[in-house]
Every structure is written in C-alpha cells, then in structure tokens.
Amino acid sequence: MCGKRTFNLLLLVLTLAGLGLGTRSLQAEATLRDITRDVQRKVVKIYGAGGLRGLESYQSGSLITPNGHILTAWSYVLDSSVITVVLDDGRHFTAELAGADPRFGIALLKIDAEELPFFNLDEGVSVQPGERILSFSNLFGIAAGDEPASVLSGYVSAIAPLEARRSAFPSAYQGPVLIVDAIVNNPGAAGGILTDQSGHFVGLIGKELRSSRNDIWLNYALPVAEIKEPIEDLLAGRSRPFVDPQQEKPQMPLTLAHLGLVLVPDVLDKTPVYVERVERDSLAAAGNLQPDDLIMYVDGTLISSQDALVEKLSYIDRDKVVSLIVLRDKELIEITLNELK
C-alpha cells in the first residue's frame, strides 16, 4: 500500500511539473507573439521607382520617430517623384526623401503623421554570433494594405567586414555587418529590420549584394552601432556627403563632352539621365552606349539626375576606367568605358 501511495504521489508531482512546463511554454509563445506584433506595427512598406525586370518597385522601412521619420535602405526605389508609404494599419502616405548617406547605404524618409509607434535608437542593442534574431520586412511584396510585415527567425552566424558587390560594383560600405542564417536578401527586404528576441533594434537589412569572394547572395544587416551616428545626422538635418569629403577633384575630370554623350534636355529638377545621342568615334560609342539608354549607376553610385551625373563625373579622372549600369529595353546592361588610345 505504501508503495502504491508513493507511486501515485510521484505521478502527481510529475504531472504538475509537466503542467508547469507547458504553462511556461505557452507563456513564452504568447510573449514572443506579442513582441512580434509590436515590432510589425513599426515596419512600413515603401513603393517607388522600378517595376521592371530585376528592378522591384518596393522595399521596407522602419519608423524611428513618433512623428513620421522612416529609416530605409538607399536604393533606386527612392529615385521617384512619388514615394508611397503604407503603415501597418493600412494608411497610405506620400513620403519625402529627407536625406541619405550612400556611404552607409541608408536613407531617411518623412511622412506627415504623429503619435506613431517607433523604434528608439537609444535602445538598440548589439548581438554576438550564436544569438537569436528576428527579421521583419515586406519580402517579395507579400504584405499589402494592413497586412503585417513578414517575420523570419534565425541566428547571427558571424560579424565580419562587408566584402560584397552589386553587379560589377563593390559596396561603398565595407565596415562590419551581421551575417545571419535567415534569408534576408529577398526582393523587398531591403530596409527591413533585425531585432533581438525582446524586440530591440539590432540592425538594418541592406540592399541585395553578392559576396566578392564566392559570388553568393549575402544575408546581412548593418549593425545599429555602425549606423546610429549617420542616422542622427540625418534626423538633425546635417547633410551627409555623397562622395568622400577627403577626395579631391582631378585636374582633368570626365565630362559629358569628353565621353561623347548628349543627354535629353535638362528641364526638370531631377531630369532622368536618358541618352539622346552618342557621338561617333567617342568613348561612349566604343562602350556601345545607345540612344534611349537610362544611366542608373556610375562606379556603383546611384545616379538620380543629370546634375548628379555631372557631379559624379567631376570626381573621375579621364585616365580612369568607368563602369556604368544602364537600363535598356527593360534589362540592366553593364558597360565599361576605357580611354581611347
């Protein structure tokens, strides 16, 4: 009889322990669910330029002030006269580009709204390899209207300098990044956010890049510690240079005339860089530039207007090889211009 009572008591203890573990597990799931939903309310969908093959017209962003400042990745999507932002609750806003720092690949948008949920950058945290992270973004443009951002779970695999490129151009930012095992290099994920399990800001998902070493797509994010200062500069209205402030202009810089390029008339504040004519026996002709080509990148720098192209060329010596990416018949074409001998 004593043995039976002992067995029943042991069974009761194990049952209660199991119930306790089950309760804690349910509580943990509920807590993670609440944290996830809280973060999703701070993530926005961004729509702008693009829409052609290889150029998706959408990406992600995160609210970083209660009055409508949005952190996102600096990309061609923002090169549009109309940038639309959709909040988690489905509200649509037209956003203004408040600033950008191409050296870090970040941009700041502003919408006319108040009392919004937001990430406090001062509460951002650093993580180490092996720690769990959550990624939030509008990957593949799945979310629309009031649908929440997509969430992926993963771990930090490594922290290492960024050795990457986009097409033929190396990344301007080559500082430390978080390498993660979650697939965060999908179309639309750029500008999304990584958090820890408590929902604290960990890093910004960068635009799609390939490793310079093995040509595979990288799953990475810019750590909050690396981008906090430039973000604060943008919020304060302090302009960030689009070129290295230590860089000097060469005595013999490139010009449109030297390249043999004639662009469409510059009649707008941001006239697109469409080629109207290519001079015979010129650098542009040797590189197979053609009328109606849209010049999008010069040596890895996004070119948003004719003024931006002229400014970029003014920092390139005529003896240097120049790499371009142009849009031609809905395809991206890489072009290299060499000095004629």
From TrEMBL:
GO molecular function, a single term: serine-type endopeptidase activity
Keywords (A to Z) from UniProt: Hydrolase, Protease
Domain of life: Bacteria
Record SMART domains: PDZ (SM00228)
GO BP terms: proteolysis
Pfam families for this protein: PDZ_2 (PF13180), Trypsin_2 (PF13365)
Protein name: PDZ domain-containing protein
InterPro entries listed in its UniProt record: PDZ, PDZ_sf, Peptidase_S1_PA, Peptidase_S1C
Family to which this protein belongs: Belongs to the peptidase S1C family.
SUPFAM superfamilies in alphabetical order: PDZ domain-like, Trypsin-like serine proteases
Domain PDZ per the UniProt entry, residue ranges: 257-330
Organism field: Bremerella cremea
